């Protein structure tokens, strides 16, 4: 009897551990970093963190938002938060090489938050992160610098248009409520 109870407890603990470690759909992919060969397993890197996922473009009128995105990243990174950028040319404003995009991000704006390789963020060839964001939120980016807050469990808990400043009270309150 004691052995049966012990086995049941062990099985329960193992299944709870397995459930706790399962990757949220939004993070269930490996992405290449911008202008690099290095790959990032999003689950390993970001599981359990609050994220601000942003589709970016290096030649857009909103490109200056990189400065505010960097401010957010630095302000909250020690609390389990990260900004993650996904450059895209879906709106024809990230033309040229990834090297040029990386220069704008890293040199011109001093971005230190993770930037993934250029990918599509809408349509049939959309990056799986944005496919899942659209499935959860019903909101597909209509322009560059759409912002999505993802909670620690991998749920989209906020969507914000390009014109919303990354450091606006609307965004920061959603971030802070999920930290």
Automatic annotation (TrEMBL):
Residues 12-179 form the Thioredoxin domain. Residues 1-20 form the signal peptide. SUPFAM superfamilies: Thioredoxin-like. GO terms for biological process: cellular response to oxidative stress. InterPro entries: Glutathione_peroxidase, GPX_AS, Thioredoxin-like_sf, Thioredoxin_domain. The active site is at 60. Keywords: Oxidoreductase, Peroxidase, Signal. One of its GO terms (molecular function) is peroxidase activity. Belongs to the glutathione peroxidase family. This is Glutathione peroxidase. It comes from Vibrio gelatinilyticus.
